[in-house]
Amino acid sequence: MTTDSWINETLYAEWGQRFLVKRELARVQSAFQDIVIFESVSHGRVMVLDGVIQITERDEFVYQEMLTHVPLLAHGAADNVLIIGAGDGGVLRRVLQHRGVKRAVMVEIDGEVVRLAKQFLPEIGGDAWNDPRGEVIVGDGIDYVKRAPDAAFDAIIVDSTDPIGVGEVLFTDDFYANCARILTTRGLVVNQCGVPFMQAGELRETSARRAKFFPHVTAYVAAVPTYVGGFMTLGWAAKDTSLTLASASEIRTRAQSAGILGTTRYWTPEIHVGAFNLPPYIAQQLPTLASGV
Amino acid sequence: MTTDSWINETLYAEWGQRFLVKRELARVQSAFQDIVIFESVSHGRVMVLDGVIQITERDEFVYQEMLTHVPLLAHGAADNVLIIGAGDGGVLRRVLQHRGVKRAVMVEIDGEVVRLAKQFLPEIGGDAWNDPRGEVIVGDGIDYVKRAPDAAFDAIIVDSTDPIGVGEVLFTDDFYANCARILTTRGLVVNQCGVPFMQAGELRETSARRAKFFPHVTAYVAAVPTYVGGFMTLGWAAKDTSLTLASASEIRTRAQSAGILGTTRYWTPEIHVGAFNLPPYIAQQLPTLASGV
Fold it and tell me: Rounded to whole angstroms, what are the CA distances from A91 to A33, A225, A266, A271?
């Protein structure tokens, strides 16, 4: 096997993961980023943006389930959901699994990601692309939240790249201020905050920023196999501080009625509740939360 | 930077992590395995056995805390502890942190691992090497448990390599039968069971084996940054089915009196309790446990 058969992730200059490539399926320079999709030997198909692994067919369930089911079931009655990014369609699919969701708007800046995901990763979005409750907009998420009416959404899910390159503007004061404005009174926003063992600043800085606009800022964790480096954190900013207090049994009841129970491979009601218990090395990055010890 | 500066983990043939090497400190072929210790750019010093990352200075706390504090605090009164493997001294150090521990016997088959760890990774074992409560034996763990008297230990911690190469014999019926025999009536054994997303068979097979000799077999999880691939599982086999039922508040009380509270960077009482809630993709590898959903 020649070294040409491997793709090295370039997220960190000094450490990272590599994949043995079966064949490359697409390599496109879009207006926003360098997009590569390849068939790996170990993880099915893999999408890479600017050298950073975004999704693999084999482990996408971990990230998608935790990024979607936790906020929607913590809210308990989310009718209108806004998704920023997530061009592969995986979050849209999980959001539309919830029976109660009436409308899911997905705003992805890079139409090429959507096009290539539909072509090469069709199972990740699945039927969601054609669900009449879903609306897929190729456009700027920043601009969308600026122009959206007040209290239009119950939950906002930000599935962006890291705050470098195209994703950077999603981690600003303006963005979070508008998120707060367009959310209903029990509304919340979640966003991926990277892997704090390697990227502690990402969680620390975005948490401090969200705390300016939301009374309850915290994070929860998920162990995503190909976001290597220990727990990834998902940032949490809510208007209602009680959303994280539901018991596992209450979450189970909501999941049952939403049609989610039994469909998951990572998420469970107990994992949902437990994911807010942060290791001290992560908790110390948050502005207000004690370490828990 | 030439490719010669990178060390690729060879645990999986088709996917894995790589480290940029600052300098190599030792490369020894012992009677049992190939041992490499290097200074990484990202993770401090790293020990590699037969091509598999065993420990890094920067993230060892996750694995050691979870492998040690969970069984000892779940037991609540472990006087005598047996450690198999763990030649770097990190588990020994965490065990001896517990005030109540009267005796910790560590049996490591490869004296070269101990010698090199003392020389190049001195902070991992720290003062534990000289603690009069500790006894370090260079010898065969299989043989040790065969010859040890009945009911000699309250807890056995198996910190071995994967069940390939030198570690393979630690995952046999004979070994677990002897573990059960030399444990006290509330005794338990924990062992590393790999990363089930990549190595599902390891958890499945050792769990089935342990279930022949222990009434309570389960597993708990830890997100160890350099055991890449999502949650690692730590196998649990106990004579007393109630050990996993202690509340976080009871565990907190025990940790306080053991001198552990406030010393940890990953472990907390809540994480201790929550670690037994397994994602369905992991739970399905266990012989008796339902998925939790």
Answer: 21, 17, 15, 19
SS3 B66: helix
Which of B269, B248, B275, B240 is closest to B77 using CA atoms? Answer: B240
Task: Report residue A115 CA to chain centroid gap.
Answer: 19
Tell whether the torsion through CA atoms of A111, A115, A120 and A124 is positive or negative. positive
Residues of chain B neighbouring A4 (CB-CB closer than 8 A): none
Shortest distance, CA B227 to any CA of chain A (angstroms): 8
Strands (E), chain A: 6-8, 15-29, 34-40, 45-49, 52-56, 80-85, 103-108, 134-138, 153-159, 183-192, 216-222, 232-238
Is B159 tagged catalytic?
yes
Residues of chain A positioned with their CB less than 8 A from the CB of B292: 268, 270-271
pLDDT along chain A (293 residues), means of 10: 76 96 97 97 97 96 98 98 97 98 98 98 97 98 97 96 66 92 97 93 90 96 97 96 96 98 98 98 80 38
Nearest to B86 by CA among B38, B25, B134: B134
Residue A293, chain B, CB below 8 Å: the answer is yes
* Chain B, window 211-250: residues with a beta carbon less than 8 angstroms from a chain A beta carbon: 221, 223-225, 228-231
Give the ipTM of the model, two decimals please: 0.94
Q: Burial level of A115, CB count in 10 A (0-12/13-18/19+)? A: middle
A13 touches B: beta carbon within 8 Å: yes
Instruction: Verify whether the Cβ–Cβ distance B17 to A20 is below 8 Å.
Output: no
Is B256's Cβ below 8 Å from some Cβ in A?
no
